[in-house]
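Anyone able to model this chain together with iron/sulfur cluster?
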Amino acid sequence: MTDSPPGLYVHIPFCAKRCSYCDFYSEEKSSLVKKYFELLGAEAGSYSSLFREFGTLYLGGGTPSLPEAALIEGVIDALSRIFDFVPGRETTIEVNPDDITKEKARSYAAFGINRISVGIQSFDDAELTFLGRRHDSDTAVKAIDILRSEGFSNIGIDLIYGFHDHTEESWRRTLVRAVKFLPEHVSCYQMTVPVNTRMGDLLAEGKISEIPDDLQRRLFILTDKVLTENGYIHYEVSNFARGEEYISRHNTRYWDRTDYLGLGPSAHSYRSDCRWWNVSSVEEYCTLLEKGGDPVIGREELTQAQIDLEDLYLGFRTRKGAALSLIAQFVSGDRILGELAEDRLVSIQGEYAVPTLSGFLVADRLPLLFY
Ligand code: SF4
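re: yes, here you go
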């Protein structure tokens, strides 16, 4: 937990077409888009006494670049009337390449958006088709060119690896192509296939298969190699920044367990060791807010044991690592720490156990060893 001002997340739950691997909550066709944007202000207003000032604003999805830019402007204006933001706040929008036009990019810049996260996923057209993306590689290149020409100096590229038939050669080609654009940030997510997706169905029917663990491992190591050799800092398991100033300030709040408020269906919030989350339906969200109700459907108070385990889990996902004082609270922590250091999964740096590259590879399993 830190003293940083909280982060504000706004979920834009609309997509033109569902990608074959995605189980995030979003609607493909909805008549409620305009109403939804109006009601976001009502939900935000209900938090005006609990949250006062934010350090970051993140418009995520779904596909925030799908609705017309005026709706994005409207919601940013509404939020700015309700809350304060620190000067020079980081304001991020996630975009799909085929939504980016000069006009839209210019509008985003005029609204104060200073960080763009582009969902490119791959520079291979056959892979993009397999992933069910709307764009091809030429469209991705065009989107980056437009964003640069409209003055964006903090662009992130999102990529996916480790899916059916993926090879080291094709992943290297995508990574090498990505770094040629000198993006300030690169996120590389390892594919997991949720059951309730088109890809999940193909997997269940035996039409595709998951790639072997050994290849996943090699793809992860290749990711680190290509990006760090090109000057990127591997600061979180899946995230790389081309300098300290480009580390995602918003996402760092999740990893530091800093407070955050999430608005919109399925959004999660966290404050003072309490977590709560909203209903996962645009329709229900709108109906509840129109009636003056509350879209929150779940809430949990974290116990100290849960907080400690989360801190351990989140710490091992970042280059900061987990505090030795935290590890010392766990049974046999010292012995296990010695074994992890011997196996080169962590290195002891000052007051922290910092995951090595091999440690990052098994980051999600490390905390379980202490519990
Ligand atoms: S991956 Fe992104 S664009 Fe594709 S369906 Fe999921 S939220 Fe929508």
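The first helix runs from residue 33 to 45.
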